[in-house]
Backbone:
């Protein structure tokens, strides 16, 4: 299942694969830079948007100018519209970045993205069911449906992957995920074919957007995200051992199958939250770990942290652009992610570090 | 096709080939003999004979051919299966047609209405379905082998997104909002794949870079399609949605004939390429020493895969799952040492024929073939794959 072609020794690339010490030393600097960038983007995200509130007045509001504080319109724009979106973007980005990184390491497949465990297709199916048969119409209700569906679908995949003689093998995990994804996708299509009204709502849900997110929707997700992230950090060392292969990991006292299932559970939590908030935008979960690997080399903890930071940055940037590209309308955020991320992925692939980024998975 | 991770025991021991290298290949045997399966559970017999254990050498004079016994047997089993499927598919309808009526329609002895339904609607549709399935199967087989990755289907190289974007753009540009001519899809697919290859810096590099560039480019192109769609009215969106699920509804000889001609040209090339691709199981150096021009081989295989998948997708829409499942099933049938080009074509054709027929009878409304392949393909593939395999000892 691995992309590293069946264990061909690649002499030229093995030389590059040993991450030079300079790379390892650079990680703290890169992380610091990314955190600073993220804070800058958060500020930008609070200042920029549609509506009549100018950047200047939003700045006055943030710096505590009394006149601006008293203006209800500015308060609405900054606190009720932009702040939730900003928080949601950071949350979704962090989730997708960490989840993608975990999944790629656990399946040893650098092309794995977070939709692989059935989270996205399960969420989509649940959303369609909710819209069609249960009259869900507010963004908050859709979020609950998506979260429930994503979790349920990935639970089925995990149960499947955890059973049988080869419990926890990467092949079993990936195949169970893609097969069940296909099934849910087909069911979604079938329901949609019969219902025009659902189809319209679903069309806009599926291209992803952070518009209309409320802080009250985000708060219940925080414990889930925290569990997912803590599990992720706890799994960093065992996952590094998995890179040695299952036999190597066993000889170090790890249980590869068990690790994979735990990690997959964490991935489901994180990806499920991301889908619930922003719709199925799985591409970010593939791109961010990729970029992180190109920057850090094989060290798992560094990869995780950087991947989450990179994804948060890209997500918030995409959301800012979504508000201003075709004002006063919203651009679908998945479209902007693709416009920003597609070329970035190609550029990383073309850089000489690709072998490192790919073969390390 | 290595489906193992580098760490597991399926790595062919490079350099310890039992064969004496290309010098001892039987004259005319293409590409030298294939090695014995190296997996646990199939211990190679230590004989000086270099014939692979799953093949029989056929000789006439100076010509010889390695007949892969198991693949041939598998193909012989699948062909009757397809015949049965086609027969059932001709009968399958939402109107309920008896066997005798169907036969009379086929022979042209029934009443004109029945004859028209069977000969002008159903037969061409089944024919197109078989060809689409074969094209998808072969394309999937080539890409999976190139990348050494089970998930590497042609849609990773932008084929589906390119075709869909072309169709979307045409539908959005037309006044009627109808899905346009059948050749739009293939053109979009080929253009997208060409962009991917340019971005990856040529097809001759490791198959890996192509895939990554493919994901980037196809995401980008898919987003363009999404953007166009999000500005469209609901009628256009609905029409394109049906196409994007994958449907054979209303496909007739006007589409089938060009499709058949394209396959007729491409399949022989695919067979030749598939044969050489068997050597990719070794590392590049061994393959090169066996006389394979890797760059040209990879480029050729990729071009073929794109052309085949692009044509199939353009005609039938991006039907889910067939390009992924057909090669895996064929590999199961043919054993681990083969690149099952014909097997993939046959299994792909069988899958689509069965799915389309099922879609016509399963529900009160006709289900598009893409819905059926998605819903049933998943569990079916799991059932096949996760039984322990005698050959590899792995599930």
Residues:
């Amino acid at each position: 299942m691995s992309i590293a072609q069946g264990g061909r020794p690649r002499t030229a690339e093995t030389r590059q694969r040993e991450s030079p010490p300079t790379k390892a030393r650079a990680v703290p600097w890169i992380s610091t830079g990314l955190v600073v960038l993220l804070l800058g983007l958060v500020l930008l995200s609070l200042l920029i948007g549609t509506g009549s509130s100018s950047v200047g007045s939003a700045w006055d509001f943030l710096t505590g100018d009394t006149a601006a504080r008293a203006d209800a319109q500015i308060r609405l724009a900054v606190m009720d519209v932009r702040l939730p979106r900003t928080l949601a973007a950071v949350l979704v980005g962090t989730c997708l970045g960490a989840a993608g990184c975990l999944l790629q390491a656990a399946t040893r497949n650098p092309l794995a993205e977070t939709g692989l465990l059935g989270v996205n297709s399960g969420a989509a199916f649940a959303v369609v069911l909710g819209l069609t048969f249960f009259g869900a119409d507010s963004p908050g209700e859709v979020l609950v449906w998506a979260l429930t569906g994503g979790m349920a679908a990935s639970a089925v995949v995990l149960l499947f992957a955890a059973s049988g003689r080869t419990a926890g093998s990467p092949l079993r995990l990936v195949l169970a995920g893609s097969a069940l994804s296909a099934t849910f996708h087909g069911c979604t299509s079938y329901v949609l074919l019969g219902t025009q009204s659902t189809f319209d709502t679903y069309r806009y849900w599926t291209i992803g957007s952070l518009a209309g997110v409320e802080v009250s929707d985000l708060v219940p997700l925080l414990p889930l995200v925290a569990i997912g992230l803590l599990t992720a950090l706890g799994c960093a060392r065992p996952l590094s051992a998995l890179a040695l292969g299952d036999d190597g990991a066993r000889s170090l006292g790890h249980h590869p199958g068990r690790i994979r299932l735990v990690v997959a559970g964490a991935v489901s939590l994180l990806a499920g939250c991301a889908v619930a908030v922003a719709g199925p935008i799985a591409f970010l979960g593939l791109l961010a770990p990729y970029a992180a690997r190109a920057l850090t080399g094989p060290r798992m903890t560094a990869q995780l942290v950087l991947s989450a930071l990179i994804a948060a940055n890209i997500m918030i940037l995409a959301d800012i652009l979504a508000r201003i590209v075709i004002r006063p309308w919203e651009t679908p955020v998945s479209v902007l992610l693709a416009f920003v991320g597609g070329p970035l992925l190609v550029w990383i692939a073309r850089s000489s570090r690709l072998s490192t980024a790919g073969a390390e998975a | 096709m290595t489906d193992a991770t580098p760490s597991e025991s399926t790595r062919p021991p490079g350099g310890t080939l039992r064969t004496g290298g290309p010098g001892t290949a039987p004259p005319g045997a293409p590409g030298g003999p294939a090695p014995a399966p190296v997996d646990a559970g199939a211990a190679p017999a230590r004989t000086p004979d270099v014939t692979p254990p799953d093949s029989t050498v056929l000789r006439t004079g100076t010509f010889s051919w390695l007949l892969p016994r198991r693949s041939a047997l598998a193909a012989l089993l699948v062909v009757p299966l397809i015949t049965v499927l086609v027969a059932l598919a001709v009968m399958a309808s939402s109107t309920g047609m008896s066997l005798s009526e169907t036969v009379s329609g086929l022979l042209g002895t029934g009443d004109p209405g029945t004859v028209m339904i069977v000969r002008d609607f159903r037969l061409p549709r089944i024919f197109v379905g078989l060809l689409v399935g074969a094209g998808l199967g072969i394309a999937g087989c080539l890409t999976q082998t190139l990348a050494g990755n089970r998930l590497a289907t042609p849609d990773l190289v932008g084929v589906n997104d390119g075709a869909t974007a072309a169709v979307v753009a045409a539908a959005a540009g037309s006044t009627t909002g109808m899905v346009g001519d059948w050749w739009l899809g293939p053109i979009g697919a080929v253009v997208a794949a060409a962009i991917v290859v340019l971005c990856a810096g040529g097809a001759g590099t490791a198959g890996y870079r192509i895939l990554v560039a493919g994901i980037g480019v196809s995401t980008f192109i898919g987003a363009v399609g999404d953007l166009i769609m999000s500005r469209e009215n609901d009628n256009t969106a609905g029409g394109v949605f049906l196409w994007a699920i994958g449907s054979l509804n209303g496909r007739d000889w006007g589409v089938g004939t060009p499709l058949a001609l394209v396959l007729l040209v491409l399949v022989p090339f695919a067979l030749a390429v598939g044969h050489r691709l068997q050597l990719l199981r070794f590392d590049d150096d061994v393959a090169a020493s066996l006389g394979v021009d890797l760059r040209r081989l990879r480029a050729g295989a990729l071009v073929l895969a794109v052309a085949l998948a692009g044509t199939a997708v353009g005609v039938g829409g991006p039907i889910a799952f067939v390009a992924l499942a057909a090669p895996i099933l064929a590999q199961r049938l043919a054993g681990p040492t083969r690149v099952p080009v014909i097997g993939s074509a046959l299994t792909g054709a069988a899958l689509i024929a069965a799915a389309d027929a099922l879609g016509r009878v399963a529900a009160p409304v006709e289900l598009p073939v893409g819905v059926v392949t998605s819903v049933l393909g998943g569990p079916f593939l799991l059932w096949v794959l996760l039984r322990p395999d005698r050959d590899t000892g792995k599930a």
In short: Residues 1-19, 354-361 of chain A have pLDDT under 50 and may be disordered. Chain A touches chain B through 72 residues (CB under 8 Å). The radius of gyration of chain A is 21 Å. Chain A is about 75% helix and 0% strand.
